Amino acid sequence: MLADGEFDLLVVGGGIFGACAARDAALRGLSVALVEREDFGGATSANSFKVVHGGIRYLQHADFHRVRQSSADRRTLLRVAPHLVRPLPIVVPTYGHGMRGKELLRLAMAAYDAATFDRNQGVTDPGRRIPRGRTLSRAQVLERFPGVAEKGLTGAGVFHDGHVYNPPRLVLAFIQSAVEAGAVAANYVEATALIRRDGGIAGVEARDDESGDLFEIRARVVLNAAGPWAEQVLERSLGRGLDPTTPWSRDAYFVVGRALVPGREALALQSITHDPDAVLSRGARHLFIAPWHGASLVGVWHTVYRGDPDDFTVTGEELQTFVDEINAAYTELGLTIDEITRWNAGLVPFGENEPGARDLRYGHRSRLVDHARERDLGGLITLIGVRYTTGPSDAAKAVDMALRKLGREGPPNASHEAPVRGGSVEDFDMLVRQALNQGRVETPEEALRALIHNHGAEFGRVLDLTKERPSLGLAVTGSTVLRAEVVYAIRHEMARTLSDVVLRRTDLGTAGWPGRDALEECLSLAAQEAGWGADRARRELEGVDGHYPAGIRERAEGRRPT
Question: Which fold has domain 67-163+247-349?
Answer without folding.
Answer: D-Amino Acid Oxidase; Chain A, domain 2 (3.30.9)
